[in-house]
Amino acid sequence: TRYAKRSLSFLAAVQIRCISLWAKII
């Protein structure tokens, strides 16, 4: 469904942002 695809892409974006933040901290 379109909603599922949007939520998946949103989760992926959040994950990438968290990983980049962790990389900056470490």
Q: How are the SSEs ordered, and which strands pair?
A:
Blueprint: H1 2-25
Q: Helix share of residues?
A: over 70%
- Given the structure, what is the number of helices? 1
Average pLDDT, to the nearest integer?
92
Q: Structural class, from secondary structure content?
A: mainly alpha
Percent of sequence in beta strands:
under 5%
The main pleated sheet reads as: none
Morphology? rod-shaped
Note poorly predicted spans.
none
What's the end-to-end separation, in Å?
38 Å
**Roughly how many Å is the radius of gyration?**
11 Å
In total, how many beta strands?
Answer: 0
What is the element string, with H for helices and E for strands? H
Write a brief structural summary.
With 26 residues, the protein is mainly alpha-helical. It contains 1 helix and no strands.
